[in-house]
Each structure stands twice: as structure tokens, then as C-alpha cells.
Amino acid sequence: MRKNYTTTTQNKKSEDFESLLADFVGEDFSYKGCTYKVPFHEQGTQQVRFSGLSLLWGQQSFSPEKGEAARFFVDKAGGARGHFTVHMEVTDCGSEDVCCPVAFYIFREGNPRPLSEHEEGQITGFCSQNDFPPLEENLTPGRYFLLMDGLADDGEQAVLQMMGRYACLPFVVMEAGSSLSHPVVASAEVSRPEEELEAGPCSSGMLCLAVRFSSSLPTDCEISAMCYTEDWKLQAQAERLLTARRQGERTIHFRFRSDLIWMAGSYTVILQHNREPFAAVTFKYCGEPVTKAHCRLLSEAEVEYRLVKDLAENGVMQRVREFTGMARLRPRLAELMSVGDYNVYCQEQRLAELQENIYMAVTSEAPFHAKRLAYCLPKLLKFGTSDSKMQDCAEWLESDAPDELLDERAGQTLILYNIGVLCSGKGREYLAALEEVVADSFSFWALILCGTEEELRQLFTCSPVLEQAIRPELRLPVERPSLAEVVHWFQQELGKTAFRLDAEAENKLVRQVEAYYGAVSLWPREEVFRFVMKGIVGRMKRRIRKGYVSAHKPSRIDMIRVKAEDISLEEWLQASATAVLVEPAEADARVFAESMKELEEMVGLQSLKEALTTDFYRMRFNEQRRRLGLSVGEEEARHIIFTGNPGTGKTTVARLLGKIYHALGLLSKGEVIATERRELVGEYIGQTEEKLNALLQRARGNVLFIDEAYSLCTDTDDRRDYGHRVVEGLLSVLTEPRPDMLIVLAGYEEEMERLLQSNPGLRSRFPYHYRFADYNADELMQIALRLLERDDYRLTPEAEALLRDTIEDTLSHKDRYFANARWMNQFILSGVLPAMARRVMTGEGTEDVEVYQTIERADVEEAIRRQASLAATTKNARPRIGFRA
């Protein structure tokens, strides 16, 4: 959402007139026994409630609401003169008609004047971003705090220290670990509480790691531990802040708490000193209460060091981290990434790059897994190509022009799948053309072949040229998911509900998955979800209903705790083999039906509902064909464009899309991530890409809703406007076959059409275009009546008649910025109900319930007067821009 106004100031250290004036008009603030000078700023009459606060410094950030450590790390000489940003996911000013001033200050403890300050008006909405100006000096290690005036914490748990009207968030700046001397690990021991092992060796919960060092530990630093499975999936993490009170100690006790089952197998714990990896602790867990661990130092040259750094800092690697069957590939990818880094360094030094054509192969039993990894490789390994094109070889053969695809290869990465057809009669001609361009080293390009191991073996038999070109170290096999990955799949799907496994159920789940690993390791995630909802939760509910006695009602804990008897993979597999999955699972159908019912209950939008319903059932039909092993053709894009005026229900429909797509198995999470141009476009080269990459990472598995999308491409040719870079960056996601993301662009009809014309690649990536018509008088009246009925209000006939007349009169004078349903809600909640409350409470006191329920004509009249007065007051104010639907 856009802010109504922004003012930014930077305090000067010189004793000029403004700083002297600040001494007289500023306000004193005491914190930890020191007095600080808060400069004069505008103060609002009410506080802004917020949730989801994050503080950012360059690429680093922390969110106290998520329990993240309030720390930043800078080089020994101090951090670059960057700027701080305060981000809030939701802001609430109590009304959409007000703009509340909020002042932000960054103080260093002991320094009475703020290092930087920022004042910005807040409105009710999503994604409030507040950028401080750049610091005049480098950020150096020490203790700091963020001071805010005008905010009230509205999160699930308080994250700020409230001191009078001020909110305070302390944080620490530390020296980055890369320039520090690290402690030396002497020994380590792993243990688990015996009570957690009573039901068996495999359960979630606590695992303790005691690490003893050869000398006293340093102080005023952070030692953290990241525990990884054999698949290099993060199992748990812990950290310790070493203060002067711990001086002389040599042992640190890390307590890893994990909701995931601790599976039998090998684990690696990477120790970090101020976020710099310096030691590795490995152990083999077999369910014993105490286990000895092995320790060693970690150098920058080792693959584990590189892997951990990439998992923490590389956005593409963070995405690849979620892929399954990658246990042996992740270390190999970390080694291959060094070539790309070398070329980046050559660019920085203005030297010639090590540029050679790249020929690779990715194999998997599931073609989708091979294509998914192949699509990420050009960015992950920094190929240096400008674009990627994914091509089905069967479709290539239908073109009758083998050279047409290959002639466009220069500077591109070409990803070929369904490669088995190249060994057929007609395919030999296309294979020969491919061999010819592979042997040509004059054009720089990259080739990735995707298929099964058998398809690749047959292709190499037909083409020794390709077998020689694709070196063994560049053949990447995606394996079946490991036993731990499959077990954790089930846990993660169950974790999306309110139900939880007890310790005996966890151990039985491990035994069952191990027994039927050959079958369940090939399940798609949607089949895992169906088993969890019907095969586990369904059995559990039947068990509880069967033993239900009204005189002895089960507790809530008993009603959400899954027991061992509720899990039977054998029964599910036998039933599935009999039914051949002809009918969709009941849980899938129920979630889908509930979401569709909510869509149908929305007022108006009839043509939109019909179009959405048809498309949803077609997608569900295709998913069912896929489960039955039938062809559904090439994966098509499902991204959507919404056009229409404010208040017509676009955000509400986007939320339902997330739920429905999640029910269909097309999105792993299904939430809505709302954003707009302000949150995407940077102010300097590279910042836009940083913002977009961070947003795309957060949007994986969700609906990415971009409001006012047309503002990303202006009518000017000014290349200093970086909005076009957002569109170019989105195209990379839009071309992915199944990106686990739904992108929705929203805006006015005419402006959105200009956006589609501005980039030829956009229109084909958005096959669905839904138009949201304005509500008519009957529909707005229905919205008002539903709102009142929900909260136990009713209108007298006279009040209802006047309300309808008001709606019709408003519609006759509306412009394109009319807020539709939002105006209706606002008129009732901020106009009619306050007028009713004033009338009732200033009259004679009564206990009659009907008096507190009945809205009279006078209440509507007072709301009309209030609306007219407000319109006159804001007549000359700058109009708000954007959608609030």
C-alpha cells in the first residue's frame, strides 16, 4: 500500500543552527541510565497498530516476532554507509481515512543524538516500508536501539519494549566472523532426554550437543550451530550469545528443538562464529541416549564450508535446498559453483572470463524433478547465458525444421526433455543437427538434457558425440527421496493442520514408511496430503467418535493427538490398489468444495464465478488424469490478470485462489503475498533485483498478488526507471513449468492492456484474464445487509429505504476510483453504527435488547451528513492511488 506522504531527514554532526535548535525543541528520552535527545517531530492523535516488523541493514535483516536474533554483522572497518529499513507486514490506523505520522530513530547506546532519523505517514494496509537515509559514517560494532513514536505492537507476541509513548527495539552490531580468530573445538557429545526415547528411537523433540573448546571462549560474540541431515536439509539450529559474564568458560551446550523426527543416520553440525563457519561436528544417531561426536576445523576450501555459505546466502541455492533426492548432488553443486564465482571475480577485475560451452545432463525417475533442477542450473552455476529455453523434443520433431531451434542458441541455455524420441527414425535427423552444433565452439551457449537414466543411456549409445561432450562430472542424477525426506513429507503435511503425532505414532510412521518405501517414495506430494487427511486424520476421527461418551468427553489435546493405531500405510495401499484412484480423495474434494462454496457466496461477480468454476474443474480434471497415468499435454501457465475498479473483491478472490490451488495440489502453501511497485523497484542498479529475488523466495508456494501492476512499465523511455527490470525478472518465473507459485497482476483495464503491450512475452504467460465488474445498487445493498446481519443489527423499513436511496445516489455520481464494497463497509462501520451508538447512549438508559439492535432512519441521515462533511474536508487532498480490494 502506498503512503500518503513521506519526509526524511538526516541529522548532521556539525553544530549548525538546526542541531542547536533541536536542543531547545527536542525531547529527552532515558534508556539504560543515559539520556538521549529525540528531535522534534509531528505527533499523531492515535497510535498505529502493526504486526510482522523486520529491521533491515543492506542484505541482512531480522524479525523479532519470528524469534530471530537482533544482530547485524559488519566488516572490521565498519559496515558500508548503507541505510536501515523498517518493514511492517500489516499496519492499522483504525480507519482507512486517516494518515498517522510515525517517527523512527536509530541511536547508538551512549550517543545522545540519533545516527539517522525518518518520519513517515502510515495508512491502514499491507507492506509498509520505511527507508532511512544513508548513514554519514560507517556502521561500527556496538549496541544500538531503534526508537519509534506512534506505534503500538499488534503481533501475536510483544516484540518491542514500550516506554511511555515510545517503542524501543534494541539490537547489536558485531564484527563479521570472517576477520576473527576462531576458537578450537576439542571434543563434543550428543544426548537425548531418556523420556523422549521411551516410545522408540525415532521421535521429534530435543537433542543436546555439548561442545568443549581447547581454551576459554571469546566474549561479546555469537556462536551458532546448524544441524543438517544426510540430505543436507536443515533439521534444527541453535545459537548462544557469549557475554562477559561467561568469561573463562570452555563449554557450550546447544539445545536443538525440532518438530521433525530425529531419524537414525548421520548428521553434520556446522559451528559458526559471528555467522562464519569454522568447525564441523559429525555424529551418527542410532537412538542411544548419549553419542560421541567427531570434530574438525573447517576451512574455506572445503565443500561443507561452501555449501553452508551458499545455503545461507544464495537465493537459488535456498530454493534448490527444498528439492528432494539431492543428498549427493548438493556438495557437487557447491563445487561446480566455484567456476561461476571465478568468472564473476574476473568481471570485477576486468579480465577475460573462463568461458566455454556448457553441456550437462540431469536424470530422474520423475521427469518433473529433472526439469525443475535443470531450470535452476544457469543461475545457480552462473552460466553467463542471457536466457533459458525449455523444449519438448517430441514437439521439436513436429516442427520439420531442426535448425530453427538451434540457430537461436547463441547466448542461451537450451533445455531439452523427452530426449528418448531423438533415437527414433525421424529423431536421428534432429540428433545429427544437435551433434553438429555441439561440436561447434564458435557460438557460446549451454545445453542441458533431461530424462531418465535409461533415456540418457540410449541417447549416448546413439550419439558418442554427446557422450563425449557431456563429461561425467556434469551428469547430475536426482535420486529418489531418502527415507528421512519421505517421513518428513508426512510430518510437514500434517503440520499444516492442528493435528500432531505422539511419540509412539512417530515411531510407527517411520517403521511403516521404511516397510513400504518402494511405493511411497514415488508418491507426488498431493498423494501424501490425501493419505494424511484421509488415511491418518480420518482414522483418528473415527476412533474418537467410536469411543465418544458424553459423560466423559475427550480433552482438546486428545482430539488432536494422532496415535499409533491411527496409521496404517498397508491398509491405504491395498485400498488404493483396489480403487485405482478413480475417485479423488474425500479430503481433497472437501477442501476444494469448501473453497468453491465460499466463492459462490460472494455477492455479485456472476460471470467471474462461472469462468473461475469452469477453469478450476478443468484443472482438477487434468490432475485426476495425471494421477491415472493419462496424458494431459504440456504444462501450461496458470498465472492470472485481474482488472477492475477498487473494492470489487480482487484480494478476496486471490485468497480463495490460494486455498483452491492448494487443495488441487498446485501450491504447497496457498497464502497471499501482496505487494506493489514501491516494494519492488529500487533506487540504484542491482537493488531492484535484490528486492525481487527476496520477494520471490517468500512467495514460493503462495499467490503473489501485485497491485497496480501497470505502474511497473511507464510510458516513458527513461531507463533509469527500474520497473521494467521487475517485469524482466518475473518472466524467469513465468516460464517455469510448475513454479509452485501463482502470480496475479491487478489493475485498471486500460492500464493493464498497455502493460501487456509493453512486453511481448507477458500476454502468453497470463492465459487467464478475469474482469471484476462494479457492484450495482442491489449488490451493494446485499453486502450491507449481510454485514449488519453478521453482527446482529437490523434496519427499520424507513432506514432501509434511505440506505438504498443513498446507495443509488452515490452510484449515480461515482468515478473510476469509487471503492465499491469498501465504500459500503466504511459507510456502515464508520458512519451508521457510530451514529446509532451516539443516539442510543445520549438517550434515556434502557436494557431493551432491540434498542441496541435496531438502526433507525436518523442514524443513516447522520452517516450521510458525516460523509458529506468528510468529502468537503478532503476535496482538495491528493487522491489515494491503488486498489484496496
Automatic annotation (TrEMBL):
Residues 636-772 form the AAA+ ATPase domain. The keyword Ribonucleoprotein does not apply. It holds the Pfam family AAA. Keywords: ATP-binding, Nucleotide-binding. InterPro entries: AAA+_ATPase (IPR003593), ATPase_AAA_core (IPR003959), CbxX/CfxQ (IPR000641), CbxX/CfxQ_RuBisCO_ESX (IPR050773), P-loop_NTPase (IPR027417). GO terms for molecular function: ATP binding; ATP hydrolysis activity. The keyword Zinc does not apply. Coiled coil: none annotated. Belongs to the CbxX/CfxQ family. This is AAA family ATPase.
